Fold these 2 entries.
Entry 1:
Amino acid sequence: MKIIEANVAGKQMNGNFLLHDISISINQGEKVAIIGHNGSGKSSLLKLIGGIFEYSSGDIKRAKIKTAYVPEHFPENIRFKMQEYLLLMGKMSGGQGDELSKQISAYAKSFDIEEFLHTPLKNCSKGTKQKAGIIQALLMDPELLLLDEPLTGLDEMAQLELVNQLESKMGNNTIIFTVHESMLIDRLADRVLTIKNGRIVDDSIMTKKEKQMVIKAVIPKHLQVQGLPCISYEFMDENIVEMTVLSADSNKLLKELLEQDYFILELREKR
Ligand SMILES: Nc1ncnc2c1ncn2[C@@H]1O[C@H](COP(=O)(O)OP(=O)(O)OP(=O)(O)O)[C@@H](O)[C@H]1O
């Protein structure tokens, strides 16, 4: 099913064209990144795709599906406490009672904002408000999720959590997001639109990279490392080795290292 089909669409505002000659077709399930320099028109294209901006010329057909939009900046001065706000927004999108409360608690735990559930949103930090916006959108269980620079303001743990949530929750649904960070493109995108001066100048299909982990361990240089299930390794000094391993193999490698009494110094996702 097509989510959107745009035919030479343009967007004009106050006499200026923000977008020109937009001709694209996006299918259900696609994970589309929109990239480009500041001011190139990424947010405008996202809004045009999602129907937040109506087109001024050409033609756009959009499927009638449940759509959630997370703007780049969460609205200021919302007086509701975080939990009240999420309950209210969750109810507006069909959530109910205990089930909704449980979902909110689980998201709050995953995104590490439990301690702010009873804080008015206007007093929360930028990153915490950003998380509230993302949780609000995920509570809708959307068929189309539009994210405008979703990683902005999130710390590293929250960024990884967001990617994990998107991978597990969105499945065959569609995500369209503007982004500057390569991590999100590598992990999530199967298609990348590049925009310049309000025009799409490139539309590429991505081969998704398999997630890799780095394990740093204490292993004396004279001992065999070659037999271990890693893609590559590098000795940082006589005893410390950094191994790169496919995420799917990382538990197996950790188990082997621990069984051989090697000391693990670090486990992190490879960027
Ligand atoms: N509501 C608006 N009214 C008038 N001009 C606008 C409006 N929204 C965006 N623009 C203009 O359109 C151009 C593209 O803006 P847009 O926010 O889409 O770019 P962007 O690529 O998302 O930028 P950034 O990376 O800085 O967020 C800019 O010149 C901007 O000033």
Entry 2:
Amino acid sequence: MTPILIQNARVLGGDPQDILIDDGVIVALGAGLRPEGEHSSVDATGLIALPGLVDLHTHLREPGREDAETVETGTKAAARGGFTAVHAMANTDPVADTAGVVEQVWRLGREAGHADVRPVGAVTIGLKGERLAELGAMAESAAGVRVFSDDGLCVHDAQLMRRALEYVKAFDGVIAQHAQEPRLTEGAQMNEGELSGRLGLRGWPCVAEEAIVARDVLLAAHVGSRVHICHLSTKGSVEIVRLAKERGLPVTAEVTPHHLLLTDELVAGYDPRYKVNPPLRTAEDVAALREALADGTIDIVATDHAPHPVEAKDCEWDAAAFGMLGLETALSVVQHTMVDTGLLDWAGVADRLSFAPARIGRCDTGDVPHGRPVAAGEPANLTLVDPSTTTTIDPSTSASLSRNTPYEGMKLPGTVVATFLRGRPTHSITAGTTGGHA
Ligand SMILES: NC(=O)N[C@@H](CC(=O)O)C(=O)O
Ligand SMILES: [Zn+2]
Ligand SMILES: [Zn+2]
């Protein structure tokens, strides 16, 4: 590959600089670079350069639901969203609960080549919540699993959760908990509140999440092992995590783009596009989540990209599947809710969407590290963003196999202009291909 000179990019939102990439590595960074020899140039005037984004929570659906998404299509959507690495959730069919399945997913990611796929291992066999899966074998496999989760379901048995935390401590793993007390959410369809009563939909109380968050930070502290809370959605959960961090407990947390932007009022039209787990909450919760992401109480944004085929969403509310697309719109939603509101600068975005998720997933070191500083000697995993654009979201242009975006028709700021994975463009907008993305 000939060297690439990216000119005038605002690295992490700072002053314009040139970035010279050769052989997959950033070899020089500075103003007015004039490399000798053959190279190609990219004019990045007005663009922000970020470290390649890292998603700690993606559903790629392969194996088993290749009608909803495949590793190929999901990672293509990831590249278009500016991601160079994604953690693929274990709720596939078969479940990713053995070294064999996680290695298969990891290998599919390598073959597709759009983004590095870091498989998440299931905590319990078949996600049944009964017996621990072979966590050690998945950690030692070629996939090098460090994140374990029964996501979609909660590890609700306290003793199993304790054992899982003890087990992963040996290899510095982390349990990513889908915090949902199942007995408190039987048949639940939306946030519990005045609106759920009015709409006649079974409510999903905040305490169902908060009870598990509180229990698990205490368990993690007791064991001295790391717990990560998936898709935090309530003000009360924020308060618990804040208190836990003040006490120095080993907890990290994520918020999804949709919980930063959307509220339960959208459910009033019974449109299943807004059906998601955990449910959309109130404006007060949204404000608390934004504030917590800004002050670092919530460590990261994770997409929870959850593709579903048309028939699972184009139906009555009660029958519809939970979940929303997220990879291609994440950065735009974060710009809209956090940057354009003055809550976070671009360096903060780099932290919440790249540095911190890579650290939590322990993929900031090793053979193919992510979430590294934009600096000479580092792998050229880069995302170029044009923050000055506005796009009307059009699901038909998505790289995902599914169409269940909640943002259809919305105007959102920012466009990912190019993504580089170890110096190779995995996404780039050339003249004529700009426009809608979902
Ligand atoms: N978020 C969702 O609503 N759905 C996810 C499962 C999950 O993340 O809990 C899915 O797998 O579809
Ligand atoms: Zn979940
Ligand atoms: Zn999920």
